[in-house]
Design goal:
The structure holds two protein chains of two kinds.
Chain A: H1 6-25, H2 35-50, H3 76-91, H4 111-133, H5 138-164, E1 175-180, E2 190-194, E3 198-202, E4 215-225, E5 229-238, E6 241-245, E7 248-253, E8 260-268, E9 271-281, E10 286-293, E11 308-309
Antiparallel strand pairs in A: 1-2, 1-4, 3-10, 4-9, 4-11, 5-8, 5-10, 6-7, 6-9
Helix pairs in contact in A: 1-2, 1-4, 2-4
Chain B: H1 29-56, H2 66-81, H3 101-112, H4 117-144, H5 146-157, H6 160-165, H7 172-192, H8 198-212, H9 219-240, H10 243-269, H11 273-276, H12 282-291, E1 299-302, E2 305-308, H13 316-324, H14 327-346, H15 355-376, H16 391-413, H17 418-446, H18 460-464, H19 476-491, H20 493-497, E3 501-505, H21 509-515, E4 520-522, E5 532-536, E6 550-556, E7 559-566, E8 596-599, E9 602-605
Parallel strand pairs in B: 3-4, 3-5
Antiparallel strand pairs in B: 1-2, 5-7, 6-7, 8-9
The chains are: A alpha+beta, B alpha/beta.
């Protein structure tokens, strides 16, 4: 008889185990029909372990089936139970006649016991497979572990970020907004940080303590320009607004009106510039939208925060808060 | 853990058939390595899609249904946060008839996201779409191995109608994702028969519930499960001739199946406030309402004719699936169906089919039942195959199985001519690769309007123009508004800086206001002083104000998706004003003109005047 190769025997073991499981798992099947498959599965294991077929019966113990090297694969406390099931399997006739026996059939272990036995046998076959064919490629193992690690690290990071949500903190925004109760910037202002100068209050007040009409607002930020550029600034407001760059008014629309656009293109040198927007609301609807373009091919859009720097919350009205930045 | 098996022992045992202790395949390391390479290739495709999504999600516009669903998601969240005190979610338009799986998750994600609301939901939706790729990969790999998985993910990622909807479709796309995952879970159930582990039932319950929680139509998944139990009982009865045996099968499988259905029902109800208040009746009321959705009655182009949405031709879906899926997918689906049919005929005498045949049966149910249901009940159909988008991932899986089976069949059929078979296969692989590359190019060309894609059978998008719906969801408006601003800026920058432009268009107010910023403002009607008009091709919007000069067009492949007209000059009189909103929403245009048809390159006037109906409930099923 020619000796089959290990891969073929392992495949046979897998097939027998699967057949045994299918028959044991199906409540409509008598578990006894799984016995021949279980027996053949054990035979393949014995061949893989000892390179010879086992005796016809179950033998005295599992050493008839497994070499000393593989016996420890089954824990000590399980060996007796496994062997008992194996004895029951071997006692079952190999080719039973379907119309019945003259002698009472051998006792079959319960279905849970058989499933447990299959698990043990499965682990054994898997261990023999690893021994015979080697472990899965390192790349596969690395990928599996890499994915697991990435999933855990990603999950924990996402959880921490979502719990803290640093991007939703109140102290974000590159603009210092000062809201005054009069359109002449008199009185004590409400000061806060704003992400953008893009408001449409309609008939509502900008803050709780500021009236909805006849109020003023001033926004300051530091505009960081890396290289000289032709810039365009635009303000669309209802009512008056003006844009002040480094203390000079560059866009002046300081009068009462419905939503009106006004803008100007100016060359901007590299460096940090103090950009201030002033606005007043007289009556009815209130809105202001400030946009800018730093590329002559692009129409104005909200000024990106990456080129803005927060000037600080406290500084005198006539001071340049951007002095010394960068 | 290796999954393959030596060829001498017959067809590969499928991983899902593994007993609970794990894989037993001897499997050579060689097969394992090929599988690993294919899995890595699938991962690379998914990674590439994620990268493209991250780079481009801001390019996509706001579609008609998005805003409603965003608001509905907020209402659901408020209902839970206020412990039911805020009841807005219970009566919001007709959205309360939808489960809130996607909308609620979207609302939560928007609350924690650093991006704007629409950017967030577009990114979130796209990542859900990527989950759909993963679902298709998993299902195909389960049924056909690593190569099928790779093919499925590649074919689906290069199916423009799926990819294009990933970003801004808040219901059809999430439902498609839930559906393919639930079908995967159902196949897992079938492959584990006769004894299905509890975890498999639980997985099916969760995934089916999530799908049903997006659209109640997912209840079909429970019907499939019931049908499987019934078929198994029938097979048992036929095989044994014993009614008792058949009933035992029902008893044995019916109990866990019923529990899984109940579990799915609970998962579906959880994010759905309206249904939670009457969990047994209201989901069925929603199902009944959705099955008789007639409030969106209007005409649409179909095969060069005008057709009412409420009276679609029986072959409506056949046309759209035949013309909007890539040709490669269609060919491979036909191959798969042909091979499966031949195999079924060969095995027809076997009383109990193999598990994989049963899994194939699940795929047949998943693909055939919904269109048949729509045809038999004459459901309202419009917007191409948008409502049947959920079939696309499953079709990609079927196509991948066709791709896997073809080499096996050729090798089996001509064992004596391995070289000829090899040459044939290499040629086929080259052809398929070329077609996939062409798909990617077409998607790049259409970006970000991939869902308007039509395949080569009709001559691409140019061939479909005028004959079928193209940009039915209004994605091109975003590009239109941006193009208008750029054009005005380029023409006269100083004038641009000192001017506040009034714009109108065939688009709902609440979406238009998301696009008009800075010195652009929205006018409901042109007669209110609008200087520009934007109109897409649906509902003949591009034909309004035809006497006014066309300033710009949004085009793809030389085909117009949207036109921008210059209304400056003579003021628009009220009788010239034809309304400023799209017919998909509350304000229906007042008058209609006959629709021009274009068959091939010929443009001619034809077709009946459109029948319109004002709708208070503009949402779409």
């Amino acid at each position: 008889m020619t000796k089959p190769d290990h891969a073929r025997v392992l495949d046979a073991a897998a097939a027998e185990l699967r057949s045994a499981y299918t028959l044991i798992a199906d409540p409509d099947c008598d578990p006894v029909t799984a016995m021949p498959h279980l027996r053949r599965a054990w035979q393949t294991v014995a061949w893989l372990s000892r390179e010879q077929l086992p005796p016809d019966d179950a033998g005295e113990d599992l050493s008839s089936w497994l070499s000393a090297e593989h016996l420890p694969l089954i824990p000590d406390k399980e060996r007796q139970r496994v062997h008992r099931t194996l004895v029951a399997v071997c006692r079952h006739p190999r080719d039973p006649e379907p119309w019945g026996e003259t002698e009472p059939p051998p006792t079959i272990p319960s279905t849970p016991a058989l499933v447990s036995h299959l698990r043990t046998l499965g682990r054994l076959v898997e261990a023999l497979r690893l021994q015979q064919l080697g472990r899965p490629p390192k790349a596969q193992l690395a990928m599996r572990w890499g994915l697991r690690t990435a999933a855990w690290v990603g999950g924990v990071t996402a959880f921490i970020l979502l719990a803290l949500r640093p991007w939703q903190a109140e102290d974000v925004g590159s603009w210092r907004g000062a809201y005054y109760p009069t359109e002449k910037f008199e009185g004590r202002p409400d000061v806060r940080r704003d992400v953008d100068v893009d408001f449409d209050w309609e008939k509502d007040p900008p803050t709780d303590s500021i009236p909805s009409d006849r109020f003023g607002a001033r926004w300051d930020t530091c505009l960081v320009i890396d290289e000289e550029v032709d810039a365009a600034f635009q303000v669309v407001s209802d009512d008056g607004a003006r844009i002040i760059l480094d203390g000079k008014i560059i866009v002046d629309n300081w009068e009462k009106h419905r939503p009106t656009a006004k803008g100007k293109r100016i060359p901007l040198s590299a460096g940090v510039h103090h950009l201030r927007i002033e606005y007043f609301e007289f009556k009815y609807d209130a809105s202001i939208h400030v946009t800018a373009s730093f590329d002559e091919d692009e129409p104005p859009s909200p000024i990106p925060s990456r080129i803005l720097e927060f000037p600080g919350m406290e500084f005198p009205d006539d001071a340049n808060p951007c002095e010394g930045k960068r | 853990m290796s999954r393959s098996r030596s060829a001498s022992l017959g067809p590969a045992l499928h991983p899902s058939l593994d007993p609970p202790w794990g894989s037993m395949h001897a499997s050579g390391a060689k097969g394992g390595r090929i599988g690993l390479v294919l899995d890595l290739a699938s991962a690379a495709v998914i990674a590439a899609v994620i990268a493209v999504v991250l780079l481009t999600f801001r390019d996509y516009g706001i579609t008609w249904d998005e805003t409603w669903h965003l608001v509905y998601g907020d209402y659901i969240l408020e209902w839970f946060l206020t412990l039911g005190a805020d009841t807005s979610a219970l009566c919001y338009r007709i959205d309360f008839l939808y489960g809130g799986t996607f909308d609620l998750l979207g609302a939560i994600v928007r609350r924690v996201s650093p991006l704007s609301g629409f950017d967030t939901i577009h990114l979130f939706g796209a990542l859900v779409g990527v989950l759909g790729l993963l679902g298709a990969w998993r299902l195909a790999r389960r049924l056909g191995g690593p190569f099928a998985g790779f093919m499925a993910v590649t074919l689906l990622a290069t199916t423009p109608v799926y990819y294009g909807h990933m970003f801004n479709n808040p219901k059809d796309l999430p439902f498609a994702v839930g559906y393919v995952w639930a079908i995967d879970a159902l196949c897992e159930v079938v492959l584990h028969l006769p004894r299905v582990p509890r975890r498999v039932w639980i997985r099916f319950a969760i995934l089916a519930g999530l799908a049903m929680g997006v659209r109640i139509a997912g209840i079909l998944l429970l019907c499939y499960l019931g049908a499987i139990v019934a078929v198994l009982a029938w097979q048992r009865l036929r095989a044994t001739g014993s009614l008792a045996a058949g009933l035992r099968t029902v008893q044995r499988l019916g109990r866990p199946a019923a529990l899984a259905m109940m579990g799915a029902w609970v998962v579906m109800l959880m994010p759905w406030p309206w249904a939670l208040l009457d969990p047994l009746r209201r989901p069925f009321m929603a199902l009944g309402r959705m099955s008789r959705f007639t409030i969106h009655k209007r005409s649409m182009p179909f095969a060069g004719e005008e057709m009412l949405t409420t009276d679609p031709r029986w072959d409506y879906l056949l046309h759209y699936f035949g013309l909007k899926l890539p040709v490669l997918v269609l060919v491979l689906v036909l191959v798969a169906v042909g091979l499966a049919g031949a195999a079924w005929l060969r095995r027809s005498r076997v009383p109990v089919p193999h598990q994989r045949a049963r899994a194939g049966g699940v795929l047949v149910l998943a693909i055939a039942i919904p269109p048949l249901y729509a045809i038999v009940l004459r459901s309202v159909l419009y917007d191409g195959l948008r409502h049947f988008l959920f079939l696309v991932p499953v079709l990609a899986v079927v196509a991948s199985l066709g791709a896997v089976s073809l080499p096996r069949v050729l090798a089996r059929r001509w064992p004596a001519a391995p070289r000829a078979v090899m040459v044939t296969l290499v040629m086929l692989a080259l052809g398929a690769s070329t077609m996939i590359v062409r798909q990617v190019r077409a998607m790049h060309e259409l970006h970000p309007h991939q869902y308007v894609y039509f395949n080569e059978i009709i001559g691409g998008l140019p061939g479909a123009y005028g004959n079928y719906d193209t940009d039915y969801y209004g994605n091109s408006y975003k590009e239109g508004f941006a193009a208008l601003a750029e054009q005005l800026w380029r023409t006269d920058p100083q004038r641009f800086l000192d001017t506040r432009y009034l714009v109108t268009g065939c688009i709902p107010d609440f979406i238009a206001r998301e696009y008009v910023h800075g010195n652009f403002a929205w006018a409901k009607n042109a007669s209110e002083g609008a200087q520009f008009y934007l109109g897409y091709t649906r509902a003949d919007c591009h034909l309004r104000y035809e006497r006014r000069p066309e300033l710009l067009r949004v085009e793809r492949m030389g085909t117009m998706l949207l036109t921008i007209r210059d209304l400056r000059g003579d003021p628009v009189a009220e009788d010239e004003d034809e309304g400023g909103e799209d017919d998909t929403d509350e304000d229906e245009p007042k008058t209609r003109r006959p629709r021009p048809r274009r068959l091939g390159n010929a443009r001619r006037q034809a077709g009946p005047a459109r029948e319109t109906k004002r709708s208070e409930e503009a949402d779409e099923p």
